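Bumping with the actual sequence this time:
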Amino acid sequence: MMIDLKCLVFVLLFVRADCKILVGTVDTFENFHFLARFCFRPHNGKASFNFTYRRDNVDGIVPTYNTLLMYYDGEKQWDAAYKTSLTCHEKVDLLTDQDDDDQIAELRETDEKYCSQEDNTAPLINCTSNFENKKAIYAIGDPNIVTYHNGYIGFQNSRARWWYFAVSNCDNPNGVTRMTYSIELTNGKTFWTKHVSADEIGILETDIVFVILFIYLVIASAKVARVLANRQLYHTSFKIFIASVILQAIAAAAFVIYRCMINMSGEENKVLKYFGKAVGILAETLFILLLILLSKGWTVVRGRLSTQGTMILSASITFYFLSQIVTLFWSAYMFDPGEVLYEYESLPGYVTIVCLTMMWIWFCTCNYHTLSNYPDQNKFYGIFFAAYSVWFLAKPIMVLVAAFQLQDHYREKAVNVVLNTNLFFGYSVFLILTRPSTNNKMFPYNVKTSQIGVSETADDIVDAGRPKASSFERANMFRANGAINGSRADAYAVGFSSVSYNAESGNMDLFNPYSASPTNPPHI
């Protein structure tokens, strides 16, 4: 079987989008060919068509015409017709056998009404059309060129329902006659619904809300960062957090622009769509990296990771990021446009979810060891572990529910709300935990940024097998290194406003402005 690949690729580029205004060319030797799919609302759904094709004569005598077929989602309709062993005639008979003649439109000159406008008995479609008033127009000088202009079909469904459009020419041994077409699929006339599939109605409004929330987080994070920088507490971990929040805000803004373009023109900008998805993946990956680092105690109770730990973490994060990218490309180019599939319903998608689950297990293990070694940090790590266990598990659970439980016409908007809410939850909790307030007893940072580079750190002591120090003792170790060398300990433990060194006794006097006791571990 030979197919004009350029034309076929041109068709698939438009059909895959589930939208809105489709323009393409059908050039295939198949007798039954999928065109498009769209989810119509219960009311005011409409499909408008323009077709141009050359009719063929079988054996030079009998003319054959292309036929437009419309299937709704269900076991006895599209599921039975698509990718099954049924012949072309049997696929058409799925509509005629169920008194669904209104779902068949022969693209030829006829005086017969295409579909009744009164007393319609079809259970799921109350069809209105002007096909009966639009006879075929034959090109001057070539009576075999058939053109249809401005044909339309109205849909009244019992619920939001996916409809699948196909074209057939069962009597032509050469398959569907080469045909150019334009199709406009709409849900009502308002900006918020007209060019939007019913399963996506409401997503733009939701995305606008989350853009505002993420921008607020960016502003709030910048204010916290300025306070931390003034106190020499602006650690790399918080810089990673700000980078992730900014990238997430950019991704959300890209999706809002992308959906606004669809709502206005009915045409999607795929570059903008996948740019937003890629930036969102990078933002999520950075945040997961941050959570694993903190679970290991980095910038909280230790200033560095072991070489082996760094290599393992780098490899794991890179693998997760690449699995997300492969899943994105797989959903874009490998999914069958004739099926409604969730983004993670693929081998790379399942690998990504398994990888995320393994990340959570690793996160739990690291939290356990850190908290066991440094119990004085239980206020921070207790909340940290509970909140981000929920955060890690929310996505795998949502993916499983979306793939196997949610109905296709409801899934997209439900997943969008849950995943965006989960992202906002994760960022908000981190910002609350790290806010530099006198009332924040969970504040994690115990070492100033100027102390990270000290050569003899508490990590060295732990790595050497000596007794583990509390975070308060670790802060003293960082400063004692400078004090013993005769310096005045200008870079002091986190939360302390002053440190003095008594040369006679060899002791360090530390004062915490947030504590009534100078020896109480610092909490900001």
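The tokens above came from a reply further down the thread. The radius of gyration is 32 Å.
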